[in-house]
């Protein structure tokens, strides 16, 4: 297939590019490098089945020739990044989705929207099934991401209902792995970078809030299976094993051998107290569940961060 993928130079996007190329597809990557990094794609060299287009995915794209699928992953995804770029975040998820849905309609292509567990906000239902409508502050600082994704889901379903467009929606829970930006402000990248540098690990709140962490290869497998399915309704892709921030911090310290201490700072506004996916739908419809344990995935991530730091020093 010929696939258009926005956010191709991002952490998740670049791993998905790799998998699609391995599976024999042609990939046109789109990224304006606002938060993506060209280095994430450097290993592809002159691969004849991949090209990167420098463009803003919130604006209409002019792509030569037909495409079979459009995968919309472009968006700042970590709180510090989307708080720095609030309007850009809203536009790439809202206007970006609309323009790409129109392109899919003209091209006869399918459309996959990469949504997020943030559509559940600070949930009152635990774990979170796809049927839960969420608890989101529509005007808080995080709303630019949360509501941007909720709107993207709504317009995706509208095009599916009104035009019969082939659509898929994946709700991505916390994902980690190699190629994360060490300075993106996510908890895994923060802890690993700080531990390797011998700096104190920054824990927000009292560290009792929970997250569920999936390794990036598991997510990519889920997305590929979702594309091959005929599932229209949203599907959670995440790891149902739940950890507190304190547990994660101590595991990172153990695996890095760091003697860093923990420092505690105020919990950011609207930060969810707990997050854990119900993946029954993914298991039943896709035959998918995560396979990489947190300890194993963290070891791979720590190695990648360490190698990156060594390369920068040379």
Helix-strand layout with pairing:
Elements: E1 2-6, H1 11-22, E2 26-31, E3 50-54, E4 69-72, H2 79-84, H3 86-107, E5 110-116, H4 143-163, E6 167-172, E7 175-176, H5 187-196, E8 201-204, E9 210-212, E10 214-215, H6 216-228, E11 235-237, E12 242-244, H7 245-256, E13 262-265, H8 280-286, H9 294-313
Helix pairs in contact: 1-6, 3-4, 5-7, 5-9, 7-9
Structure description:
The longest helix is centred in the N-terminal third of the chain and has 22 residues, at 86-107. The relative contact order is 0.14. It is built from nine helices and 13 strands. Strand 5 (110-116), helix 4 and strand 6 form a beta-alpha-beta unit. By secondary structure, the protein is of the alpha/beta class. Strands 3-2-1-4-5-6-11 form a seven-stranded parallel sheet, with helices on both faces. A two-stranded parallel ribbon has the order 7-10. It has a two-stranded parallel ribbon with strand order 8-13. The mean pLDDT is 96. The protein has a domain at 2-176 and 214-240 and 277-291: 3-Layer(aba) Sandwich (Rossmann fold), CATH 3.40.50.720.
Mean pLDDT across the residues is 96
Distance, first to last CA: 40 Å
Overall shape: it is globular
Helices and strands, in order, run as EHEEEHHEHEEHEEEHEEHEHH
CATH class of the domain at 2-176 and 214-240 and 277-291: Alpha Beta
Main sheet? 7 strands, parallel
| Physical arrangement of strands within the biggest beta sheet | 3-2-1-4-5-6-11
Which CATH architecture of the domain at 2-176 and 214-240 and 277-291 would you pick? 3-Layer(aba) Sandwich
Computed structural class: alpha/beta
Q: Could you tell me the radius of gyration in angstroms?
A: 19 Å
Count of distinct strands: 13
Q: Which homologous superfamily in CATH is the superfamily of the domain at 2-176 and 214-240 and 277-291?
A: NAD(P)-binding Rossmann-like Domain
Tell me the strand percentage band.
Answer: 15-25%
Note poorly predicted spans: none
CATH topology of the domain at 2-176 and 214-240 and 277-291: Rossmann fold
Helix count from the secondary structure assignment? 9
């Amino acid at each position: 297939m010929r696939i258009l993928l926005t956010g191709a130079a991002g952490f998740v996007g670049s791993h998905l590019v790799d998998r699609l190329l391995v599976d024999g597809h042609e990939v046109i990557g789109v990224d304006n490098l606002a938060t993506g990094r060209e280095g994430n794609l450097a290993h592809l060299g002159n691969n004849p089945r991949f090209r990167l287009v420098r463009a803003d995915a919130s604006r209409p794209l002019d792509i030569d020739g037909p495409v079979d699928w459009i995968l919309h992953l472009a968006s700042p995804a970590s709180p510090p990044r989307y708080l720095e770029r609030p309007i850009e975040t809203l536009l790439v998820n809202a206007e970006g989705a609309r323009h790409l849905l129109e392109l899919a309609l003209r091209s006869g292509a399918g459309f996959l929207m990469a949504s997020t567990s943030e559509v559940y906000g600070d949930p009152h239902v635990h774990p979170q099934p796809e049927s839960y409508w969420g608890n989101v502050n529509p005007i808080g600082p995080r709303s630019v991401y949360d509501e941007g994704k909720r709107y993207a889901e709504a317009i995706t379903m509208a095009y599916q209902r009104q035009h019969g467009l082939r659509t898929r929606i994946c709700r991505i829970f916390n994902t980690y792995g190699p190629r994360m930006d060490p300075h993106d402000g996510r908890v895994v990248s923060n802890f690993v970078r700080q531990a390797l540098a011998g700096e104190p690990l920054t824990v927000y709140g009292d560290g009792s809030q929970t997250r569920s962490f999936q390794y990036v290869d598991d997510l990519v497998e889920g997305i590929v299976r979702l594309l091959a399915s005929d599932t229209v309704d949203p599907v959670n892709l995440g790891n149902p094993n739940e950890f507190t921030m304190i547990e994660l911090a101590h595991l990172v310290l153990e695996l890095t051998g760091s003697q860093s201490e923990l420092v505690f700072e105020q919990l950011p506004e609207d930060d969810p107290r707990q997050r854990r996916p119900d993946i029954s739908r993914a298991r039943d419809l896709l035959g998918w569940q995560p396979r990489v344990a947190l300890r194993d995935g963290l070891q791979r991530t720590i190695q990648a961060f360490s190698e990156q730091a060594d390369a920068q020093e040379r």
